[in-house]
Amino acid sequence: MIHIKVPATSANVGAGFDSLGLAVTLYNELHIDEYDGILVRPLDDVPVPMGENNLIVRSIKALYEHCGRPFKGVLVEQRSPIPLSRGLGSSSACIVGGLRGANKLLGEPRGIPGRIAFATDIEG
User: Fold this and answer.
1) What's phi and psi for 77, nearest 5 deg?
2) To which H or E segment does residue 94 belong?
3) pTM assigned to the model
């Protein structure tokens, strides 16, 4: 099982608007492993999507498909203290965490620049 921590972020720093950013001390923590099916287990009281519509699961599945590896499923245990819709990058933390976990499970086929480009495509 792979353990990943991804910090919350803010990209709206004063006069820098979206060109300056910072990481803050809130972290999504993920435990990810290959699994036959999809199982999402929250490790806190934060409600999260439990199936294929979970953003972490979607990110993992997208990288598997991009790398030509069949996606059979995944186990995701997640602690998600980054608040939703508050400008702290909750969706980005899910995408980055999912891609990092998938990349490790796949044997590291994508470097950081490739994962950044892929995350940008997912985030839109």
Assistant:
1) -105, 130
2) helix 90-105
3) 0.87
How far apart are alpha carbons 3 and 119 in whole angstroms?
A: 19
Neighbours of 31 (CB within 10 A): 16
Close Cβ partners of 27 (under 8 Å, ≥ 6 residues apart): 5, 6, 7, 8, 81, 82, 93
Determine which helix (DSSP H) or strand (DSSP E) holds 102, and give its type and residue range.
Answer: helix 90-105
What is the tally of helices (H) and strands (E) in the chain? Answer: 3, 4
What pLDDT, on a 0 to 100 scale, did the predictor assign at position 122?
Answer: 84
Average pLDDT, the chain: 89
Helix ranges (DSSP H) in 20-89: 55-66
Residue bearing tokens 């990058």 = 89
User: Per residue in 81-98, pLDDT tens?
Assistant: 998 877 788 999 999 999
Structure tokens at 121: 């495509």
DSSP state, 83?
P
